[in-house]
Amino acid sequence: MDISVVIVGWNARHYLELCLDSLAEAPPRRSMEILVVDNASSDGTAEMIETRFRHVKLIRSRENLGFSKGNNLAIRQCQGRYIALVNPDVVVFPGCLDALADFLDQNPKVGNVGPRVFNPDMTQQSTCRRFPSLWNNFCSATGLASKFKESRFFAGEHMFYFPHDRTLAINVLVGCFFDDSP
């Protein structure tokens, strides 16, 4: 197994259905398994998965474990060389999982990678951060980071100055969707 996709959801039936549809409509060329942790949803999420997505491994939790514990529960059952943690409200674009896995194959010292992330209106989200520091916090608290968004020096933790047009080693990757090697 090459890629294990892990999705943790709670009462996100509509979004999760769109996410699973995107994975089914344009699956990667690599082998893939999908594990969904349902955190005790009351909106019919688990039933929708059992009915529409029989190939998905559904893990039913009796309580809302939250994001981290839910991911850990599924990760213990993953068979893939790579694990993609995907939020339920993400639509995975065709070729995305293959590109991430290819990058990890070509860069064995890299432990985590993330794709470009877009809002519903196709504007790009900033998904890169720097570690917090006194200077970063000062820039954010005083408004310097907002006033000089294009400045690396005054950026604060956010890296709004980075256009996401190339690979870059960063301190923090926002976790709505990332791929890592266990």
Quick structural overview:
This protein has 182 residues and is of the alpha/beta class.
CATH class of the domain at 3-114 and 173-180: Alpha Beta
Major sheet strand order: 3-2-1-4-8-5
Whole-number radius of gyration?
18 Å
- Sequence stretches where pLDDT stays below 50 over 5 or more residues: none
Shape: globular
Q: Please name the fourth-level CATH homologous superfamily of the domain at 3-114 and 173-180.
A: Spore Coat Polysaccharide Biosynthesis Protein SpsA, Chain A
What report would you give on this structure?
- The longest helix has 13 residues, at about 15-25.
- The protein has a domain at about 5-115 and about 175-180: Spore Coat Polysaccharide Biosynthesis Protein SpsA, Chain A, CATH 3.90.550.
- The protein has six helices and eight strands.
- The protein has about 180 residues and is an alpha/beta fold.
- The model has no long low-confidence stretch (mean pLDDT about 90).
- The strands form two sheets. It has a six-stranded mixed β-sheet, with helices on both faces. Strands 6-7 form a two-stranded antiparallel ribbon.
- The protein is globular, with a radius of gyration of 18 Å.
